[in-house]
Fold these 3 entries.
Entry 1:
Amino acid sequence: MPSDSALQQEDNAQKLSAANAKNYRSVIGLLLYLSRDRADIMFVVKELASAMSSPSLCPVPLLRKLIGFIKHTGDIGVKLPFPEHGVGKFKQGTEVFWLLETYTDADWSSNKAHRRSTSCSIHFLNGCFCFGSSRSQKVISLS
């Protein structure tokens, strides 16, 4: 697993020094770039990136765990086969040239610190992964 449930706990830890905060931001910037191709780490990187403005000691062990996960799963990649027209992951239709499939989900405010839901989506074009996203919603859930 790239992370555990401590990822969504409230952060009351001591802030990082200026040098360590700069290093934290640099690593998160690299992970933001990498997470576009690795759908398995998108959510964790999004949560760790939310602490970039004033990083504390709380997300550092989670960042180390994520880096260890990436080291041990470094051979994972996105396979891009030659696309067949009208053939998707779960649907086949010979009447269409391009078949765009989108799958979405939300966690409905599982983060108790800020009560914002996370929406995620994965997009496939003719059965080939082309884009994935994981974003926090702006509206706070009340129920």
Note: The chain has a mean pLDDT of 82.
Entry 2:
Amino acid sequence: MLDKEKICAAFCDEVEISKVPAGYAIKTAFHTADGDAVGFYVVPQGDDPTRWRFEDSGVMVPMLEGHGINLKGGAREEAFNNLLSEYNASFEEDSQEIVSSWMNESEVASGALHFAALLLRLQDLEFLAPDKVESAFREDATKAIASRFGNVAQVKFSTGVSDRLPNYIVDAVISKENAAPVAVFYATSEPRVSEAVILWMDSKIQKVPVKVVLLLEHSKPKNVSERMFARALNHLDACPAFRGFEMNAMDKIATYVPGLQ
């Protein structure tokens, strides 16, 4: 029998899990760009109750295409396929479903987080459209982090935070020997904020020491819902505001880097 308590613990107490004929339906606390809750199914492999996989029920790709995102050519098709490969998932053309690989029951709790993270990251494909360019915030934040920490710690950008958490690409990782790394996410979109929260949750499940910081462009982000912003504030290690307080924001991050407190 699937251990629902483990999945509930992975998503805090806001997850809803219900039994359905195919297996279980999971409704998470995260939301799509349309405001709908991110949900998916976990189904057994035939009659084997020890093997499971996740399925999105064929809603994500049609939603993306409804936003004018063409996944059958160009940079977005390549990014789509790269994300599927990164999360060990695949797209079934006939059913229009995104599905995970089969996994043992013991992997389902962490796997649920990874699958939710994949569905959230797929929404960022919308921002590959020519008329939606990255804010100068990303460039300015990267320069500020490199300037503040480049000579006193190891700083990497657009990279993983740990071999034990391979499915997360962090905007900046600041690390020093024998210390927990600091993973910095730029709050450029609601899915990005959601991924920061998911990484924080997964690090607790996997018992991987990491500090997770969400760097806001402004103290009241316009592109993040109040609900998601509250979740970030309540869970993450810090959510400093950048614009107008650049030095203070870097000082806040520095409190999690050994020797810079």
Note: DSSP finds eight helices and eleven strands in the chain.
Entry 3:
Amino acid sequence: MAEAERASIVSAARRASLWCRLGLSAALFLAVSPLRAADATLEYDVKATFLYKFAPFVDWPPGSFDQPGAPFVLCIVGADPFAAPIESAVAGQRIGDRAVVLRHLSVADGRSGCHLMFLAGSPAQSVAQALDAVRGSPTLTVTDSAAGTPPGVVQFVVVGGRINFNIDTVAAAQNHLTISSKLLALAHAVTQGDRR
């Protein structure tokens, strides 16, 4: 292979990597408008979009999917704060070759087949109880930062009027998940110790 051709391939790979990083940043941050305290609808619209965008940057252990083309199952557990926005956010979305399937559950269970769970809590099961129920299963748990809500692997936070997120790498490891360094770099904070 000629040196000029090799340099061209390396340059193209670098450009593709840069566009991938910029695409993730844009998808997660640039489209997010500052939130007013009373704008809960916009807040949950943005969070609904974030949910499935986390998945390409997480590695699930072997056996997490029944077969190569099995769907990616996103579950909302407890009192659903999203309503219609989550339905429209995931409609027709794919993660690689996997269709995104949305399920609503009243309680969390490690055998539910959910790959990602947003844990909202309810009278039937608190967020803390839900986290305990799925700890050790290959589930990306996502929680809100409301007062007293324990953090999942990912926890939404509002910083400077914008939706952001924290990541707990120890909680990820307990659930046998590996978080991409690209996603860790975009987090507001990364915790490397168990806070539970």
Note: The chain is about 35% helix and 25% strand.
